[in-house]
Amino acid sequence: MKHRLRRRNHRHEPADINITAFMNLMVILVPFLLITAVFSRITILELNLPAAGSADKQQEQQFELEIIVRENSVEIGDRNGGLIKRIAATDQGHDLTRISELLQQVKARFPEKLDATLLLEENTPYDTLVQIMDSVRVARVVQAGSVQLAELFPEIAIGDAPASSVKVASNKGQ
User: Fold this and answer.
1) Max CA-CA distance within the chain?
2) What count of other Cβ atoms lies within 10 Å of the Cβ of residue 67?
3) Which among 58, 91, 88, 46 has a CA at the least distance from the CA of 70?
4) Are 80 and 152 within one domain?
5) How far apart are CA 106 and CA 12, in angstroms?
6) 70 and 103 part of one domain
7) Contact 154/107 with Cβ under 8 angstroms?
8) Domain that holds residue 129
9) Which domain CATH number covers 154?
10) What does pTM read for this prediction?
11) pLDDT by residue (tens digit) across 62-95?
12) 14-32: pLDDT as tens digits
């Protein structure tokens, strides 16, 4: 009987844990994670939200660039003066080349202007937002045989598009 008790007690002795394989894994994994962490970067664009309705009469006379992105078109205009041009979307999406060309013309007329308001319809795809923002911020211009980036309107404010379209501006001076 005593012999049986000794066997049971012998079975309950703690076994040695071999952690060599786990330590080898950690030795390889930690440097790998540290090396790959250096290559990941997040780019952040600073956006300005539109001011809450308080504006002086002097500011109302200034040109306020407003770009309204709709599902089937992009409307570029002056908040105070109305629509400059409506660019219809193609089968492939919004015509970013025509948008960029029009914004370059606006920049030529108002070279000191740096801000623009981008108004989006509900359910506008994120990819469309990014492409339009890139077109508003910079333009690709060919100078001396190479493509250069020209600054257009880098200070972008984002908001919700109005339900109805804006009134058409007069084409004086064009």
Assistant:
1) 114
2) 25
3) 88
4) yes
5) 85
6) yes
7) no
8) 57-160
9) 3.30.420
10) 0.59
11) 888 899 998 888 999 888 878 888 988 888 888 8
12) 778 888 999 999 999 998 8
At 172 the pLDDT is 45
Query: Would you say how long the chain is, in residues?
Result: 174
Per-residue pLDDT reduced to its tens digit, 87-135: 888 888 888 889 999 999 999 998 898 899 999 998 888 898 899 999 9
For 58, phi then psi, to 5°, come to -65, -40
Q: Which two tokens stand for residue 91?
A: 């089968």
Whether 128 and 74 share a structural domain: yes
The total number of structural domains in the chain stands at: 2
Q: CB of 105 within 8 A of CB of 141?
A: no
Cα gap 33→37, rounded to integer Å: 6
Query: Which DSSP string corresponds to the chain?
Result: -HHHHHHHHHHTSPPPP--HHHHHHHHHHHHHHHHHHHH---------PPP-S---HHHHTS--EEEEE-SSEEEEEETTTEEEEEEE-BTTB--HHHHHHHHHHHHHH-TT--EEEEEE-TT--HHHHHHHHHHHHEEEEEETTEEEEEE---EEEEEEPPSSPPPBPP-TT-
Give CA–CA dist 119/133, Å, rounded.
Answer: 11
Given a contact cutoff of 8 angstroms between Cβ atoms, the answer to whether 138 and 152 are in contact is yes
User: What is the CA 5 to chain-centroid distance, rounded?
Assistant: 73
Could you tell me if 127 and 77 are in contact, meaning their C-beta atoms sit under 8 angstroms apart?
Answer: no
Q: Are residues 62 and 34 in the same domain?
A: no
